[in-house]
Each structure stands twice: as C-alpha cells, then as structure tokens.
Amino acid sequence: MPQYATVGFSAATGAYPQKHEILSWERAQGVVEFEDQEAPLGFEDAMNREFDHNAGPRRYQIALGLASALLYRHEESEQSVIHRDIKSSNIMLDSDFNTKLGDFGLARLMDEDAGVKTTALAGTFGYMASEYISKGKASKASDVYSFGVVALEIACGRKSIQSNSDASLVARVWELYGADRVVDALECLVNVGLWCAHPVHTLRPSIRQALRVLKFEAHFPDLPKNMPPPNYNLVSLEEEPPLPPSAPHSLTFTSINAGC
User: Fold this and answer.
1) Residues 162-191: pLDDT tens digits?
2) Which of 63, 192, 237, 241 has its CA 20 to 30 A from that of 51?
3) Number of structural domains, the chain?
C-alpha cells in the first residue's frame, strides 16, 4: 500500500490535486492509487489548458467514466453514498483520460428508508439542483442533476455559469435544444445532460438509466422544447422534511463561463 495517494480536489486549493497521507486503502471502482507518478490531471484544468475542443470521443469517454463512478456510489457499493458536490473541478483524469470522481468531503451515506440526514446545505452554485437549494435535502436526484450539468460542460466545453450572464448553462443549452440547434454528434450527451439536469427532480433519471442511454442501450429521453420551471411540491421516495431556517450553510462559489 502506498504511503500517499491523490484523493481529490477542493475549492479552497484550486484545480490541482494534493497529496494526503492515508491510513487504510479500499480497492473499489472510482478509487485509484497513484504511486511514483505525476498527480492526475483535473478535468477543469484539462478543459482550460490541454483539452482539444474537437476531441468528441474523448469527451464522451470522460462522461461515461463519471456516470460509471456515480453508479457505483449510488447503487453498487455496500451502502449508497450521496456525493453532494459533483463538479468539473472534482473530476480526475489519468494519462489515458480515464475518469475518477474525487473530493468526498461533503459526501453522506444514504439510508434507503430515511434518506440522507444532513444538517447544512453544502455544494457549489451552478451545480446544485433547485429543490436541494430550496429544501436543503440531498438525494440521488440532486447528484444526478450535478452530473447533468457536468455532462453539458463536457459537451459544450463551457462552464456552468459566468459572472457577466444571468443565464445558466442548463438554460442556454435547453434554449438551443428547443430551437433544434444541437449538433448531431453531441446529441446524445446533450440530451442526457438536460435530462439529468431537469428542473423537476422526479422527472430526472437514475444514474443507471442515464448510463444506458449514453451507451446507446436505450432511446433518448423525450424532453420538452422549453425548459420547465422547477416544482418543489412533487413528492419523491427520498423526501425528508426541509432543514430549519437557522441551519448553517456551506456553499462554494466558482467563477465559471456560460453558454454553448
């Protein structure tokens, strides 16, 4: 077992990985050791500096890898884990652009009967589902929303929001989708991204359903031409009472660009 391993990023330290001493090691999908080699490249850094904007297959590979890592955490590990902070700067890439999901500092275990017990709203604006912001309730659906935003970032080569625009990436891409201006080569990834980032959380897919479409094992979702408004009153199986108004908030602000 190596003494040091790269385990992820944090908004406080930027887009580059740090080395952390570990006391134990778990071999599982989405967890990887790095010994005597350069630290892996963050997707956000790759997109900014080294990523070829015409590298469609490579982008698709990254999206598939992220979906597979999230599927493991949601459905295939011994106990489901809600990440709560899926974003481009928490994606790690090795030299072959294989994807690893990092920074589980905000993650919570999922009780399938009672849902996630959280005491504070946490995450990054631009990647947080509207019902999570409104009710303070983390769920698989809110993780799927964050994945959808990242999928759109991968497809468009843009960040989820920017300081000089009121339009989010989700809103901008949905506008292009409604106008039939989505490039054919990106259609699958954009459709899945919008489906996962659907404002109504009960209409989002599970990460397994999204992965099946990405693998062309299922048909594209039938989405409305116009972006629907959020609906906080729809009941979910993972529903739990909202946090009290006095609950502390731990949010990360990022400086990101918008639009396709």
Assistant:
1) 666 667 889 889 988 888 887 765 788 999
2) 192
3) 1
